Amino acid sequence: MQNLDKNFLLSKTSSLINFYLDRSKTYPLVFLFKRNLGSWILMLKMMESHYEGVNDLNIEKLIDDKQAYLYVDVGGGSTEITYFKNGNVADSRSFNIGTIRILNDMVKTSKWEDLHAWLDDILKGQHVQLIGSGGNINKVAKISKKDPKEPLSYEYIKGYYDTLRSHTYEERILKLDLNPDRADVIIPAMKIFVNIMKWTKSKQI
Residues with Cβ < 8 Å from 200, sequence gap 6 or more? Predict the structure, then answer.
């Protein structure tokens, strides 16, 4: 990448952006740029069910170069976190803290402590906006019935997490209308989001 001409990369990046923006009503996305070794790398993340039915997604309103962001993608095996500052990727790490690992009691306290310490180290008390990704947070957003472009508060996330924990697996299916494959993994997913929101003092996601 170092030997590629920057203007060439930027022109190709611009073409890609225009290609996806032309199709954004069908494939809404969030895009961010990463400066790496003097070159621009386009980072495209297709938004999932959280933005279904949103035809006028305003990308500029989602991303502000003056705002710091934590992009949190919770999966079954790991949680991927990317820290964006001034429109660039400032740091990124993958933690072996995933929904399946938690369900199988494979996440030791030291793993949580490592995540907490890393967040403290990169943020140093700085206010950051969280962007959540993954099927579980998308499901919670749908259940909230809020406008998909509006964030969810910490109080709502924590409250829903407590509600989930107060129901058995069967009750989460019958009373909370969750699919069987969602009714178990959604609790550890919410635990991850709640902890990250608490440790970063984020009021919304």
Answer: 70, 119, 123, 128, 130
Give the residue ranges of the chain where pLDDT is below 50: 1-6, 9-10, 12-13, 17, 20-60
Q: What is the pTM of this model?
A: 0.72
Task: Assess contact for 94 and 72: CB atoms under 8 A.
Answer: no
Separation of first and last alpha carbons in the chain? 34
Chain centroid offset of residue 200 CA: 14
SS (H, E, C) the chain: CCCCCHHHHHHHHHHHHHHHHHCCCCCCEEEEEEEECCEEEEEEEECCHHHCCCCCCCHHHHCCCCCCEEEEEECCCCEEEEEEECCEEEEEEEECCCHHHHHCCCCCHHHHHHHHHHHHHHHCCCCCEEEEECHHHHHHHHHHCCCCCCCCEHHHHHHHHHHHHCCCHHHHHHCCCCCHHHHCCHHHHHHHHHHHHHHHCCCEC
Give the model's pLDDT for residue 69. 87
**Nearest in space to 58 (alpha carbons), one of 85, 28, 88:** 28
